[in-house]
Amino acid sequence: MKNNIESIIKYLKGSNDDFIVTSHISPDGDNIGSTLAMYYTLNKLGKNVYHVLDDNPPQNLKFLVENMNILKSEEVNLDSYNIIALDCGDKNRMCISQKLIDNAKKIICIDHHASNDYYGDFNYIDTEASSTCELVYNLLIEYEKKENINIIDEDIATCLYTGLVTDTGNFVYSNTHPSSFEMAKELLSKGAKKDTIIQKVFQSNPYNYYKLLGEALNTLDVVDGKIASITITKEMLKRNVISFNDVDGITPYTRDIEGVEVGILLKEKKENEVKISLRSKNYVDVSKIAKSFNGGGHIRAAGCTIYSSIEDAKKKIVEAVVKAIQGDKNE
Ligand code: 5GP
Ligand code: MN
Predict the structure, then answer these.
(1) What is the mean pLDDT of the chain?
(2) ipTM for the complex?
(3) Residue having the nearest C-alpha atom to atom 22 of ligand 1
(4) Cα separation of 219 and 229, whole Å?
(5) Ligand 1 atom 17: the closest Cα is on which residue?
């Protein structure tokens, strides 16, 4: 079923089943922000709701989950439940067990990824939206209007604001629209803790992060002036005591070089498993490149995993980007 905010509201309202909220692997601000906002909402509406994610939030988002009980799939034993998959463009990327996915009564998908294939029984997908948090915000505003109730409180506003600022790079990226600022204004008026969010998310990097960043910048490699890459090996992470999920914010260094169209971050998760982050500036659709490696994302920000050595992964992704630059330039 295609976009239908009305039918999602009707279903949420009418269902007496339990709900699981979940998102994608390698959680980011939009993932944690949208799932928590939905969790708090369903709680308020008197539903039984569980937040399930088989991965750990990065250090800079821990402040949002301090009082939360985030469950792993094996801790959940439910009979009749629905899944709300947020910010997850691909069913295979949902960060819960296959068993939980297979036995769900209905899957409600709320997402803004260009690569989303409408895998839910209900789908509210808007690839133009700044963030999934913006879609959750729209849904909640609609719900409030329809039922004449107040849902968005200080906690929900804080969660939604977090996803909005992280996915728009603090209102910088091309997915920042007038509606993003309107949403920000409304959330601030509802008590979103802006200063806490900015400090915790963007201004709390551990010292070791900068040691790692220094090493990472030393690997910077520019091809034809248009493609820049940075490589982070598992040894570099180990040496600087930084965990895999805590290396956010390094990819933009590649894209932000003058003349560079596509920036690539290669991050080695384990032997023969390399996480690739792609960013583009003007004309290359990086979600297409990511898709060709079974990944996905947005036009200007996407990712995938390549299962080979880091050297080989770099060769493959650079080759694909060179081709895409030729293709997209000629379109
Ligand atoms: P990042 O580079 O920050 O990890 O991800 C950039 C964007 O691409 C995010 O919206 C993220 O959800 C999406 N993305 C990253 N990796 C993958 C992947 O392996 N598969 C899919 N479908 N999307 C991804
Ligand atoms: Mn997102």
Answers:
(1) 96
(2) 0.97
(3) 296
(4) 8
(5) 303
